[in-house]
Specification:
Helix content: 25-40%
CATH class: Alpha Beta
CATH superfamily: Zn peptidases
Order of helices and strands: EEEEEHEHHEEHEHEH
Number of domains: 1
Number of strands: 10
């Protein structure tokens, strides 16, 4: 805050507009779980949005799309991106690295609950420190959710129940489905996110809205990444951040 002195006894505070900035921070610093957090500030008031990729290491489109989001510059508010949440699992190319717990089951499902493990604790700390308003968690399923013989949730948007999350979720699903020719490959709207997920934890701890977005690994990687980015772009557009 800047002060301009008009007389020896009177000063009038003027609010300076904050500058836009990009910071790259580290989570779980100094541990084998260490990973990057991008803090992208517009310099203007607005929502705080967290986008996460790489919770599961074998869900390639999620972290590749999140890496592209790191280059976004919001027109208002703050964009937080954790592109490779679980670097050990990504390096191993596995859902969960050997000796780890499933990061998608490690977050609290109640407001007073605790995260399990160094990595989940570090991410939850960020959610609380920035008082996140919205979360998009980028995932992939091994099959299409419309396949009745499979339990996979590929091609779905799983939102934490709220009217605004349902509104933008419906728009995303309907928009992407317009370019999908086969009914069995279409996205579906589901609820709620699984207990232990980062999306559900953000909802119960700080009141954030959000969703898990699941593409299907049966599609080409370029198609999957493109659909993840479409969903991210629509969310940011809905919030007047893009």
């Amino acid at each position: 805050m800047a002060f301009f002195i008009l007389t020896s006894t009177l000063s009038i505070p003027l609010q300076a507009e904050a500058a836009s900035s990009v910071q790259v921070k580290k989570l779980a610093t100094g541990t084998k779980y260490e990973t990057k957090l991008y803090v992208i500030k517009s310099g203007k008031p607005g929502p705080v949005v967290l986008i996460v990729g790489g919770v599961h290491g074998n869900e390639t489109a999620g972290y590749k799309a999140a890496l592209k989001v790191c280059n976004y510059r919001p027109t208002r508010g703050t964009l937080l991106v954790i592109p490779k949440a679980n670097v050990l699992a990504i390096k191993a190319g596995e859902r969960v690295a050997r000796g780890q717990i499933d990061l998608n089951r490690a977050f609290p499902s109640t407001k007073s609950g605790a995260a399990r493990g160094t990595l989940a604790k570090s991410i939850l700390k960020i959610i609380k420190a920035y008082d996140v308003d919205w979360v998009m968690d980028m995932h992939e399923g091994y099959d299409y959710v419309k396949n009745p013989s499979s339990s996979s949730v590929g091609q779905s948007l799983i939102y934490y129940p709220s009217s605004s999350a349902k509104t933008i979720g419906s728009r995303i699903v309907n928009t992407i489905n317009k370019n999908i020719g086969l009914n069995r490959k279409e996205f579906c709207l589901l609820k709620p996110p699984v207990k232990g997920s980062v999306c559900r934890a953000a909802a119960v701890t700080v009141g954030a809205k959000g969703f898990i977005f699941e593409t299907c690994s049966r599609d080409s990687l370029s198609t999957r990444v493109n659909n993840q980015l479409k969903a991210a772009n629509m969310l940011l557009g809905y919030l007047d951040m893009k």
